[in-house]
């Protein structure tokens, strides 16, 4: 079965479209595409991804910013939106998948939204464990909760936010109107070496 990420990747787009659709290709392919768009005179580039490709999209943003285009503003100063989309499978059934769009821009913008004190760190545990943790924070009186994840857990963090908002917490603002912070963190490996990994913080707030 052809994946939705592959369909997104191979879909034809208008020559003037500034969107990069993340799919199965290596991250550097998309980095090159973003850099080429900016070098061609564009002031903004929109990176789109669904499902498991979301983690790769964040990696692409970090590589572009840290290695190639220092003047590109970090996405926390731009529009970062995510949502749940319904897609059609080959057998005719429908399924839902998380989606993200990251807008990179060369212009100045608003200040960064502060991170709430209530934080849920997403890791290797089952998805619903983190959904329950977010719901519990709000049920205990929290006005805002930050969902944080690194590396391959980034896609799961987006799923956590969407499930919590759509199934359990109807009073939570649509995250597309909120800030999503994207960064890179330095980790110390078991052998003493250091490596960088992409990270995201998704801020949910009550209406």
- Structural class category: alpha/beta
Low-confidence stretches: 1-16, 108-112
What gross morphology would you assign?
A: globular
Q: What value does the Rg take, in angstroms?
A: 17 Å
Please name the CATH topology of the largest domain: Translation Initiation Factor IF3
Report the average pLDDT across residues.
Answer: 79
Can you tell me about this structure?
There is one protein chain. This protein has 207 residues and is α/β, with parallel strands linked by helices. It folds into two domains: 4-105, Alba-like domain (Translation Initiation Factor IF3, 2-Layer Sandwich), CATH 3.30.110.20; 119-205, Translation Initiation Factor IF3 (2-Layer Sandwich), CATH 3.30.110.20. Helices cover 31% and strands 30% of the residues. It is built from five helices and eight strands; from the N terminus they run αβαβαβββαβαββ. The strands form two sheets. A four-stranded mixed sheet has the order 1-2-4-3. Helix 4 (127-139) links the parallel strand 5 and strand 6 (144-150). Helix 2 (27-39) packs across helix 3 and helix 4 crosses helix 5 (154-168). The longest helix is centred in the N-terminal third of the chain and has 16 residues, at 53-68. The radius of gyration is 17 Å and the shape is globular. The termini are far apart. Residues 1-16 and 108-112 have low confidence and may be disordered.
């Amino acid at each position: 079965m052809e994946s939705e990420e592959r369909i997104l990747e191979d879909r034809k787009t208008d020559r003037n479209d500034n969107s990069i659709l993340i799919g199965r290709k290596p991250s550097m392919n998309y980095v090159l595409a973003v850099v080429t768009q900016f070098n061609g005179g564009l002031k903004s580039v929109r990176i789109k991804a669904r499902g498991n490709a979301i983690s790769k999209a964040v990696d692409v943003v970090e590589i572009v910013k840290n290695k190639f285009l220092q003047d590109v503003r970090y996405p926390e100063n731009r529009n970062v939106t995510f949502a749940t989309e319904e897609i059609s499978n080959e057998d005719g059934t429908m399924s839902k998948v998380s989606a993200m769009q990251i807008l990179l821009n060369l212009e100045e913008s608003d200040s960064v939204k502060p991170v709430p004190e209530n934080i849920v760190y997403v890791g290797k545990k089952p998805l619903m464990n983190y959904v329950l943790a977010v719901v519990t924070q709000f049920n205990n009186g929290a006005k805002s909760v930050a969902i944080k994840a690194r590396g391959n857990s980034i896609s799961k963090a987006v799923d956590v936010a969407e499930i919590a908002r759509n199934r359990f917490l109807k009073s939570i603002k649509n995250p597309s109107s909120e800030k999503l912070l994207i960064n890179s963190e330095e980790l110390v490996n078991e052998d003493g070496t250091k490596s960088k990994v992409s990270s995201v913080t998704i801020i949910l707030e009550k209406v």
